[in-house]
Specification:
By secondary structure, this protein is α/β, with parallel strands linked by helices. Helices cover 44% and strands 11% of the residues. Helix 1 crosses helix 2, helix 2 packs antiparallel against helix 3 and helix 3 crosses helix 4.
């Protein structure tokens, strides 16, 4: 067992427990099935979506834009993607219902193969807290779609900002009623773990194909291949 005294485990959701790009690709392809949006076209549009969300969340954290929940940012990204898709497949950018459906694709994300069983195993030993940049509404639907098990699910919407703002991690500390060092933040994104680390939480990096890998200068408490490996390292049978 790792040399850690942990009383609760906090999980990032997007990318860590669910395959966000896979869900968005499905939504993008639905704009124009069997069309130019397959393959490289889909990847270009996915990148447009990701860059918009990352940029606008960053502007909100920096105080350069008033807070908007993730639903609104997803709708903006969906409109940008639909317009770009319309340049290749005109009908894809013209249907408001298709844009709305694409925006909701951000709530229909598949879990990684180890996620559901891994959460169930860890929940036998620790209180589990989900901590996501997704809005309250989006998080509810996302959790239901992916079958995620929580004792508490927290949205950055309650802090009216986004990770890695310290106020988001403080939500988990407040709800747990524990010192930060008794919480373990689990994420596939090194930037997320750095944010938690700055507030005093312990950290565990879980490798995912879509994550943000640690740099040589990062020093996290645990490094796991998946949730089963994480449970093993925490001594969970």
């Amino acid at each position: 067992m790792a040399d850690l005294t942990i009383d609760a485990v906090v999980f990032d959701v997007l990318g860590t427990l669910v395959d966000e790009p896979a869900g968005l690709r499905t939504g993008i392809r639905a704009l124009a099935p069997s069309s130019a949006l397959d393959g490289p076209g889909t990847e270009r549009l996915l990148l447009l979506w990701q860059r918009h969300i990352e940029r606008e969340q960053g502007r909100i954290v920096d105080g350069d834009r008033p807070y908007l929940p993730s639903d609104a940012l997803d709708r903006e990204a969906a409109e940008i993607v639909a317009r770009a898709a319309g340049a290749e497949v005109p009908a894809a950018g013209a249907d408001p219902d298709a844009v709305e459906s694409l925006a909701r694709a951000a709530r229909r994300l598949p879990p990684w193969p180890d996620t559901v069983a891994g959460l169930a195993r860890l929940a036998e030993r620790f209180p589990l807290i989900g901590l996501s940049n997704a809005s309250r509404t989006a998080l509810l639907e996302l959790n239901a779609h992916a079958g995620l098990r929580w004792h508490q699910a927290l949205s950055a919407e309650d802090a009216r900002t986004y990770k890695p703002d310290p106020e988001v991690y403080r939500l988990a500390v407040t709800v747990a009623g524990l010192p930060p060092e008794r919480l373990l933040m689990v994420a596939a994104h090194a930037w997320d773990l750095r944010g938690a680390q700055a507030l005093g939480l312990r950290t565990a990096y879980v490798a995912r194909p879509v994550g943000d890998p640690p740099t040589p200068s990062d020093r996290f408490d645990l490094y796991a291949e998946d949730l089963a490996d994480l449970a093993d390292q925490l001594g969970v049978s």
